[in-house]
Every structure is written in C-alpha cells, then in structure tokens.
Design goal:
With 457 residues, this protein is α+β, with helices and mostly antiparallel strands. It has four domains: 6-83, no CATH class; 99-205, Endonuclease, Chain A; 224-276 and 374-455, no CATH class; 286-371. Helix content is 39%, strand content 15%. The chain has 17 helices and 14 strands. It has helices at residues 35-43, 69-83, 85-88, 99-109, 147-150, 155-168, 179-184, 186-196, 224-237, 247-250, 286-290, 296-313, 318-327, 336-345, 390-404, 409-419, 427-443; strands spanning 6-12, 46-53, 114-119, 126-131, 140-144, 173-177, 256-263, 266-273, 316-317, 351-353, 360-362, 406-408, 447-448, 453-455. The strands form five sheets. It has a four-stranded mixed beta sheet, sandwiched between helices. A three-stranded antiparallel beta sheet has the order 9-11-10. A hairpin with a 6-residue loop joins strand 3 and strand 4. Helix 1 runs parallel beside helix 2 (69-83) and helix 15 (390-404) crosses helix 17 (427-443). The radius of gyration is 27 Å and the shape is elongated.
C-alpha cells in the first residue's frame, strides 16, 4: 500500500493476548528487521483521520525498552491513538538531522532530564522536549533556529505564534535557544532550562476568555465626524512619502503591484498594495480542536491562531477566518457546530458587522474595521466578493478616483473588479460592488456629478 492514501484509514492490530494471559510480542513483519519502515508506511496513509482497532491497551504490552524497535514504536503509536496527538507527546516525525539540536539535547540529558528531539507531527514541532524522569508528560519546550524555523513564513509565525500555541497547550515553559547564544553561553542556557522546572505554572492564573464590554463601538464611517476623518487621512495619503507612495497605499503590506487603468482615453499606471494570503501552516490536529470546548488552554492556543490570521489578513471575513483557523489544525471542511465553537472563542468586541451587508469581519486586537483606511489588490481573486469588506471597496474606489479624476459607474465597477481580481463582473459581484458605491455616496466620500460621473467631493 506504499504511496496509496485515503481520507480515512482503518488500522487493526490483529494480535491479542493468549488464553493464559501472556502477551507475545511477535507482530509479524513489524517486529522483524526493517519492520519500523513498514509501520511508518501503515500509519501515514490517512489524509484526515485514522481509526484504530485493538483488543488491548498499549500499557498491556508492558515495558518494551529492551524489545525490538518495531514493537516499541507500535506501542507508542497505540498510545497516540488512545490519548490523542495533543496529549500523548511521545512520537515525532523524521526530519533532517541537526548537529546543533543533538548537541543541545545531549547536554540536557547529562543534567538528568529526559529528552525527545523533534516532537510532534505538525509543522509546529517542538525541537527539543524536556521533562523530569518522574514526569508523565513533557514539561519544557525548546525551540531552536534551523530549517523548520526558517520555513515558518512571517516573523509572527516564527516568533510569536509558536510560543503562544505551545503555552496554550500546557507546556510549563517555552524557551528559545539560538545557535550563536548556545556557542557563547552554553552553561547559562542549561541553567535557565533547569530553573524552568522550579518556576510556578502561571497558566493556572490565567482567566477565562472574556468579553471586553468596556470598549465602545466605533463611530459609523457614514457619520460626518468619521467621514471628515477618513477624507483627511486619504488626502494625506495622497502626498508622496519616502518611498514615493502615499501611506494608505503602503499600509498592511510590503509588496506592491502596478496596475493599469484606462481613464479619459489614456492609460495610467499606479501602485497598489498586494493581498498576502495567510499560509495556514499546521500547528496541531483535529483532536486539539476537539478539546477546545472543554480545555481552556486549548482555547487560548486556538485564539493565538486567530490572532495570527487577523494580524496577517485583517480585516478578514468571519467565515474565512474560521476556515483558515481550522485549516491550521488540518481541517478543510468545517461543520456548523465547529464553526460556532471557533466563533465563541473570538472576543465579541472584535467581530464587527459590514456597514452595507450582512457579512461580519474580524480585525486584529488593535484595529477596527470602521477605522480601516487601506485596501489590498487581489489579482488572483483569493478572496470572494463577500470576503472583502465594504470599507475596503470604498477605500479602493476613493484611491482610484484620486488617480483618474472621475469615472462613470460602469467603469468604476469594472476597475474595482480588476483591483480585486474579478475577471468579469457577475450579478453577485455587481450587487456587492454596487452596495459599496452606494455606501460611499451616502457617507459623502464620493459624489455623483450632474453628468452621472463619479468623483471626489
């Protein structure tokens, strides 16, 4: 079956204890030479889930420390199946060997601790897991710089998200060990690791997810105060900055893309910030999400992923946020109950209604949709028309009119569609774009001249 995969795989051990209660450790090819490779193939064929059938518990196999490697790994796999990947903490995936990690791990072992290198199955693996010999679970997570660290994308995903997720999943301490520091301050780092086991677990003092009712609602962008504020900022954004572009054009992204527009019979080219899709790297599996309803620490870990998504894509449409969050835990399909559970984790003050549609959006903790002054060109249409807020459409329309002077409604809809990657303006897209223009007209951000052309006030 090597190379074959299926969404769901059923795994049966097909061995059990004898009539007299003895437990033979002969599992056929698995316990023979090269059996570990056969086991590896068998347990990695499932795309979404593996259902395991066994007539005994993993602990019934006894102490296998001196037995065949295949039997030991089978026992660990069954422990994983019994307790869930987020709780057993005994298995890891094979990665490129790192002398740096091996050196750190061996030094920690000499201090009397148990150590596991590259613990876990997702892209959020723990480089070195450490615990005291008498501990049932891993206690201290050590993250090091290396290939897996460099592959995590943004600085937020490399530095902030792993720390928050691991702490939320119950690790007593998460320590970052850089190679240069290890070479220069080896003893000090080992002392820090030792001290981590004597520190009080501060997670017990963390309160429940709560709603911040002290935050007042932002003024509706259509009000005179906010309209003037937005217009002033947009006027300021039109002034050249150090990089030759207005501040609104550069907000939220590091990359820009030139887009051509036809106005008054000639082509004008100017820069747009480009939408950068959240990569949704795996940080856990479905069993982690399953515990979100009852485990406060898991809810904190899920909230850390939500914060990462909003920091990367915010303002992000609520259902899109839910799907990206679930994708970070290996789920592509989200049932309604799961969606509701994820939404319940988001502080309600961060969920804002779109001013012209029934859609809802979530921004980062420090931002508000109603105060958002940017927009992101999306030439590949990675977002559907309803996953882009009215505010973002309006900001793009105002910017277009600053470049073109005036446009007829049909031309404006076509240009807006081009900014966000719509190859054609379908009926559904027209309805959304039209509602954004109507909102801009009501808010006074755009006016319609007597000749029916749209322009700035």
């Amino acid at each position: 079956m090597q190379g074959d995969e299926a969404e769901t795989v059923i795994f049966s051990v097909a061995f059990s204890a004898t009539k007299n209660g003895r437990f033979p450790l002969n599992f056929g090819p698995v316990t023979q030479q090269g059996g570990i490779r056969r086991l590896n193939v068998a347990v990695t064929r499932a795309q979404r889930e593996m259902i395991v059938f066994s007539s005994f518990r993993p602990d019934d196999m006894g102490d296998l420390s001196n037995k065949a490697e295949g039997a030991r790994m089978l026992q660990k796999f069954l422990q994983l199946a019994q307790k869930g990947a987020h709780s057993t903490g005994q298995l890891g995936v094979a990665v490129e060997r790192s002398r740096h990690l091996a050196d750190v791990a061996e030094a920690i072992r000499t201090r009397g601790f148990e150590v596991e290198v590259q613990l876990g199955f997702s892209q959020m693996r723990v480089d070195i897991a450490v615990r005291r010999p008498d501990a049932d679970a891993w206690e201290v997570a050590i993250l090091a710089d290396g290939p897996t660290w460099a592959e995590r994308g943004t600085a937020y995903q490399r530095e902030v998200l792993p720390m928050r997720v691991l702490e939320g999943l119950g690790w007593q301490k998460v320590i970052r060990v850089w190679l240069p520091a290890w070479l220069e301050e080896r003893d000090a780092i080992l002392t820090e690791i030792e001290n981590a086991f004597t520190e009080r677990d501060n997670l017990n003092d963390v309160g429940d997810d709560s709603v911040d009712t002290s935050r007042t609602s932002a003024t509706t962008p259509g009000s005179p105060t906010t309209t003037a504020s937005m217009r002033d900022v947009l006027d300021e954004a039109d002034q050249p900055t150090a990089n030759g572009r207005g501040s609104a054009a550069a907000s939220g992204t590091e990359e820009n893309s030139s887009v051509g527009y036809l106005t008054e019979g000639h082509e004008t080219t100017f820069d747009y910030p480009v939408f950068d899709e959240f990569p949704a790297d795996l940080v856990g599996d479905r069993t982690t999400l399953d515990a979100a309803g009852s485990d406060r620490r898991v809810r904190q870990a899920v909230l850390a992923v939500i914060d990462s998504v909003t920091a990367h894509e915010g303002p992000v449409e609520l259902d899109r946020l839910v799907k990206l969050t679930c994708r970070s835990f290996g789920l592509d399909r989200v049932r309604q109950s799961r969606r509701d559970e994820i939404v319940s984790i988001i502080p309600s003050g961060r969920i804002e209604p779109d001013p012209a549609r029934s859609d809802r959006f979530v921004s980062s903790p420090e931002a508000k949709l109603s105060n958002y002054l940017g927009f992101r060109a999306d030439h590949e249409a990675k977002r559907t028309q309803n996953q882009i807020s009215t505010i973002e459409y309006v900001n793009a329309a105002v910017w277009i009119l600053k470049q073109t002077g005036s446009l007829e409604l049909e031309d404006m809809l076509r240009e807006l569609g081009a900014v966000f990657g719509f190859d054609r303006v379908t009926e559904l897209r027209r309805e959304v774009l039209d509602s954004a223009i109507r909102y801009a007209l009501i808010a006074g951000l755009i006016v319609e001249r007597e000749d029916k052309r749209l322009c700035l006030p």
